[in-house]
Amino acid sequence: MNFMPTRDEAIKLLQEVGLSQNIINHSIAVADKALEIAKNLINNSVTVDINLVEIGALLHDIGRSRVHGWHHSIEGGNIIREQGFSEKIARIAETHILGGFSKKDCQILALPVNRYLPETIEEKIVCYADKLTKGSTYITVEERFNVWIDEYGNTSILKNAKKRVKKIEKEIQKLLKFKKKIK
User: 48: closest CA among 59, 35, 61, 57?
Assistant: First the structure.
């Protein structure tokens, strides 16, 4: 299963599964931010599968068509596999949430125990771009986590997720050789 839909096919699928226009707009904004990051990395001679980044970002929240909350990332991976798409896209959906979930996080949140941490550069780019995007508005990682902390409290899950996202942010900035900071 290595099928990769086009951008138009991915957006059409988001509509077909019944996602709200707000979530579709968010997914497009995340894809645009992820593409910006990926192109800057490629310009600095980093190998990135730009098509995977774009389609993974577009489909990262597809699980919200069935469930909201923490489970939407795992459900998104399931939907992507059901469509016969590349496992790499499914992993992007599963690892985008917060800064990914460790096995311990899964136990705390009553999720299927697995390691849902972004590992590939493409997974990290989409995870990071998602944290820089609230709705269709671009914000900082700090602002994003402040919203969640206000909503859910300063929990250990959020503290650990923020550390993981800040680590991804530093890794991407280092790969960019500080040539151009992502805002």
Answer: 35
Sign of the torsion angle spanned by Cα atoms 93, 96, 97, 103? positive
Three-state DSSP class for 116?
A: strand
Assess contact for 70 and 97: CB atoms under 8 A.
yes
| Tens-place pLDDT, residues 124-156 | 999 999 999 999 999 999 999 999 899 888 888
Burial of 82 (0-12, 13-18, 19+ CB in 10 A): exposed
Going 3 to 176 to 124 to 149, the CA torsion angle's sign is negative
Question: What is the per-residue pLDDT across 16-29, written as a single tens digit (0 to 9) for each?
Answer: 999 999 999 999 99
Report yes or no: 131 and 65 within 8 Å, Cβ to Cβ.
Answer: no
CA-CA-CA-CA torsion for 132, 34, 122, 156, nearest 10 degrees? Answer: 10
Domains and CATH numbers, the chain: 7-175 (1.10.3210)
Confidence (pTM): 0.92
Kindly report the number of other CB atoms within 10 A of residue 22's CB atom.
10
Secondary structure, 3-state, 27-83 = HHHHHHHHHHHHHHHHHCCCCCCHHHHHHHHHHCCHHHHCCCCCCHHHHHHHHHHHC
Q: List the beta strands (DSSP E) in 111-167.
A: 133-134, 137-138
